[in-house]
């Protein structure tokens, strides 16, 4: 009787050992499948990055084409035609980029659903580009923000050329800001406007960084100060008339002059 019980126990242990080996093999196979899906996920991301680089290259080619076209257009029609071409090309590029991004997100989401235990999905964000400054960026005192058309009347095609240049550059700046603060670049929201300012101060509280591009400065003794809780410092313009202001709560304009240019804010 004891020998029969011992034999039964040995048979049960053998069956359990076989079942355990089979389970190990199934688990190894499942891990290989997860690794393969993760590799495809990474390949999809790399393909999207390559697509983005292609779009940036196309942007550069478009700039060169517009420069050549600008030399050939009649002076009276030049500004309006360039504006129409820029807006049309930007719309086309944006639609193509969004389509590619949506398709990639769809493929990535499918893979992440399968691998949710190891690779949880993260929310997607969209970079915002609006024609007006947000409520946080507003003038106080005697400051004025003029309409873009009024500023264009002051400076003409040079200001339009600046808008054309920055329409391409704002994407690269948002990526640099994202790296600086250690976050996803899609969480960086950018706002852009062409303005003309006179005295008073501008509130920029809540912006990670604020870029100002000077096109025109008239009047004597005009100056700017960036003010924060830690103190203030004068805005020192480089030779290319572009300055970046980070960590400030407001910009104070001093003197009797007028500043015209572009302002671009980046915030989370």
UniProtKB/TrEMBL annotation:
It comes from the Eukaryota. This is Uncharacterized protein.
């Amino acid at each position: 009787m004891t020998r029969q019980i011992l034999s039964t126990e040995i048979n049960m242990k053998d069956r359990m050992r076989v079942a355990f080996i089979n389970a190990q093999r199934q688990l190894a196979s499942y891990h290989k499948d997860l690794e393969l899906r993760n590799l495809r996920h990474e390949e999809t991301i790399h393909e999207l990055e390559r697509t983005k680089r292609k779009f940036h290259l196309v942007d550069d080619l478009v700039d060169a084409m517009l420069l050549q076209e600008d030399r050939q257009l009649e002076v009276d029609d030049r500004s309006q035609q360039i504006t129409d071409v820029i807006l049309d090309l930007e719309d086309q590029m944006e639609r193509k980029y969004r389509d590619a991004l949506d398709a990639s997100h769809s493929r990535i989401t499918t893979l992440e659903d399968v691998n949710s235990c190891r690779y949880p999905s993260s929310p997607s964000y969209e970079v915002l580009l609006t024609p007006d400054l947000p409520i946080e960026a507003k003038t106080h005192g005697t400051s004025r923000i003029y309409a873009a058309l009024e500023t264009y009347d002051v400076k003409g095609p040079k200001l339009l050329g600046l808008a054309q240049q920055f329409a391409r550059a704002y994407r690269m700046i948002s990526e640099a800001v994202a790296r600086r603060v250690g976050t996803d670049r899609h969480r960086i929201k950018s706002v852009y406007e062409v303005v003309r300012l006179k005295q008073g101060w501008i509130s920029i509280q809540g912006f990670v960084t604020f870029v100002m591009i000077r096109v025109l400065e008239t009047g004597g003794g005009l100056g700017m100060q960036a003010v924060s809780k830690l103190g203030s410092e004068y805005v020192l313009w480089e030779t290319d008339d572009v300055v970046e202001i980070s960590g400030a709560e407001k910009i104070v304009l001093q003197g009797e002059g007028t500043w015209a240019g572009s302002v671009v804010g980046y915030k989370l």
